Fold:
Amino acid sequence: MQGKKAFAFVDYSICNPRQCNAEEGICWSVKACTHKVIKQIDGAFEPPVVFQDLCMGCWDCIEACPLSAVQMREIL
Ligand code: SF4
Ligand code: SF4
Structure:
């Protein structure tokens, strides 16, 4: 919708890379983002960060997270 922007955000009360990927600690949502705007800037086994200004709101990261820790938010 014109004037609205959707972007992904991580609910850090839910996100747990040790649970969703116990072997590698790599976030599935990071792997899924073809725009490369969600990153584990502190490395494996640490929660990811979304660069919200650059997020395209495409939902790929949301569908990829097995714990539903990534959600979509809209701003006017
Ligand atoms: S956002 Fe989801 S897939 Fe990514 S580390 Fe957190 S729980 Fe795992
Ligand atoms: S909504 Fe799309 S562009 Fe934004 S972080 Fe998720 S996968 Fe990347």
User: Anything to note?
Assistant: The two ends are 10 Å apart (CA to CA). The first strand starts at residue 5 and ends at 10. The chain has one domain: 5-75.
